[in-house]
Amino acid sequence: MNNQSVEVAIAILYSSDRFLMQLRDDIPGILYPGCWGLFGGHIEVGETSQQAMKRELLEEISYIPSSLSEFSCYRDAGIIRHVYHAPLTVELDQLVLKEGWDLGLLKPEQIRAGSCYSEKAGQNKPLGLPHQRILLDFLEGSY
User: How far apart are CA 143 and CA 124, in angstroms?
Assistant: First the structure.
């Protein structure tokens, strides 16, 4: 049995008082299907968490911030989340969504409420709980 934790890198990207999130595909077999989450993914063998973060952002939305700052590291239930943050310096329509169902800039009140409406889904969708917790911690720190 393998007890090794999976390591991922995820990004808090913000523009003014809003936070970029991805509405994950609503398909079985993925974590948090049909939920809003932060962009990012698995760290490949030989990559640093920051290299993985840049690669994932490029793969998922064709965007790499000019700089990424470490925020924190969250460890739970077999997963280690390396969390980075950076300002989003382009308009939403300049991002190319390559993974996920939708993307949006969520307001702090939507993050606190734990859900947000998606035009593409045509309904309110929940935030993945770990992603909501990370953003709430970030908001408390008054980035």
Answer: 27
| Tokens (6 digits) for 43 | 């760290």
Amino acid in position 6:
V
Domain 6-140 class? alpha beta
Cβ–Cβ under 8 Å, residues 98 and 61? yes
Global pTM reads: 0.93
- The CA distance from 55 to 15, in Å, is 21
- Write down the domain spans for the chain: 6-140
For residue 81, list its beta bridge partners: 8, 74
Predicted confidence (pLDDT) per residue in 16-71, tens digit:
999 999 999 999 888 899 999 999 999 999 999 999 999 999 999 999 999 999 99
* Cα–Cα dist 103/97, whole Å: 7
Q: What are phi and psi of 101, to 5 degrees?
A: -95, -35
